[in-house]
Amino acid sequence: MQPQSCDTMVALGNSTVSGQTIFAKNSDRPADECQPLVLYERQHHAPGSLTHCQFVTIPQVSITYRHVGSRPYWCWGYEHGFNEHQVAIGNEALHSKLPEANEAKLVGMEILRLGLERSRTAAEAVEIMTSLISQYGQGKFANSAGVRTYDNGYIVADPCEAYVIETAGHEWAVKRVTTALGISNVYSVETDWQRLSPTAEQTATDQGWWQPGHANGAGRFNFADAYTVSSRSEGSGAMRRARSCAVLGLRTGIIDARTMMTILSDHSDGYEPQEDWQTTIRSSTGICRHPEANGEGGCTAASLVAELCADDSRLPIYWCSLYSPCLSLFLPIFIEGQLPPVLTLGDAAPSDDSPWWLFHRLNGPGDAAQRVRTHWQPIQDELFASAHAVAAQAKHLMDNGRTDEATSRLTHYMADNAAQMIATVRALHAELAEQKVLA
Question: What is the pLDDT of residue 3?
């Protein structure tokens, strides 16, 4: 079953209330594919070490950085994540004209993880990721493991800058972000690229997808026109990208974390990109996705809103949702502390111990969804009130040499919030079951 959609957004400091960069991502996957969080510590590796991805083995680097990833339970890579240097990355499925390859390649989510592990800035992540794509490739390839493979688009951000990378096999194009924008399951980098893979234009020309000097080849090489397999103005991906770009444009200068969370929770079909927020769940439309009534189709499995910080006034805050954002809570996560172990639980089988599966059970009829949203709002408000204060206090402690105290406070703060979330989910299950709203 193909994932139906993903959406990634970024707003640079010139577009936000705080003057700081904010990154956001919805990860849309098959309806029953659990997606917990994982944290890996910074590690040093011996010369000659190897990294074993699912289908490809590549040389390891001398150091991999501490990072958190949102990981489909079966996958080595991530749908989105962030590292100790405030690099945040999210990916999108794209579909190019290239045929399915027979040789193994890197999975797009693996490239994302490698970017987080190996980079200190967004620019460095772009260099690492595009080099890997050129050498090892990505995109659709045959495999006996039943893994869905596809070309990928990415937003890569840090506190000071952000980039869009779009790919087709071994080819890629990079566009630097200047204000605020969104990407989706549709090619968007046209002639406005800053960097291009060395053979991108020649490959397209050899395939007959681009004709330099002719009608469709006049002027600068158009990566999106050359490689996309379908219309870039029709379909779900085009509609969702139009929606995210429109609402970000309308709110330039007043974008904050709540704005991003609202966009991620939006159910507009995109045909009126500037319409008011749509909160009624519709299974087949919207940036926030839900399965069909029969359980088929995809859903938003996890979300991230990253409030980065360029001026060292506070620690970055990573707001993580472990299910569809309209039904769940955005927990503030600090990479400087220890991730609550409960957030890492979850695999193929439903479990009462896994937050992801507990939220999955809340995906009921529309009236249940409205009650769930209403229930979470005061808790989310409390977290907004506390998280920024905690981020500033912990940064002050660390600046004054009290790092152990800061990390201990952050670890306990996150653990307390996670415990409250789990208790609330369980209480919601009991309440809605008693009212016969949920089974």
Answer: 45
Please state the φ and ψ torsions of residue 6, each to the nearest 5 degrees. Answer: -150, 155
What pLDDT, in 10s, does the model give residues 202-242? 999 999 999 987 555 568 999 999 999 987 888 889 999 99
Cβ proximity of 191 and 217 under 8 Å: no
pLDDT tens digits for 73-105?
999 999 999 999 999 999 999 999 999 999 999
Q: Three-state DSSP class for 316?
A: coil
Read out DSSP for 42-65?
Answer: -EE--TT-EEE-SS-EEEPPSEE-
Q: Is 293 exposed, middle or buried (0-12, 13-18, 19+ CB in 10 A)?
A: exposed
Q: What is the mean pLDDT of residues 150-165?
A: 98
DSSP string, 168-230: ETTEEEEEE--SEEEEBSB---SS--SEE-TTHHHHHHHTTS--TTSGGGSSS--HHHHHBSS
Confidence of residue 295 (pLDDT cuts 50, 70, 90): low
8: helix, strand or coil: strand
Q: What is the CA radius of gyration of the chain?
A: 21
Q: Give the per-residue pLDDT at 2.
A: 46
Residue 1 has what pLDDT?
39
Longest CA span, the chain = 69
Q: Which residue would you say has higher pLDDT here, 438 or 128?
A: 128
Q: How many CB atoms lie within 10 A of CB 353?
A: 10
Quote the distance between the C-alpha of residue 234 and its chain's center.
Answer: 23
Q: What is the mean pLDDT of residues 344-373?
A: 86
Nearest to 115 by CA among 105, 104, 130: 130
Task: Convert 397-426 to b/e letters by CB count within 10 Å (16 or more is b).
Answer: bbeeeeeeebbebbbebbbebbeebbeebe
Question: Which contacts (CB < 8 Å, 24+ apart) does range 413-417 have?
Answer: 413/332, 413/334, 413/337, 413/386, 414/331, 414/332, 414/333, 414/334, 414/337, 414/338, 414/339, 414/340, 415/340, 417/331, 417/332, 417/383
- List, by residue number, the catalytic residues: 6
Half-sphere exposure of 307 (CA within 13 A, CB side): 29
Q: For residue 32, what is the DSSP state?
A: T
Are 332 and 10 contacting, i.e. CB atoms less than 8 angstroms apart?
Answer: no
Tokens 């493991």 belong to residue: 145
64: its two tokens: 């991999």
Side by side, the strands of the sheet bearing 7-11 are 180-183, 7-11, 22-30, 298-307, 317-321, 331-333
Give 331's strand partners.
Answer: 320
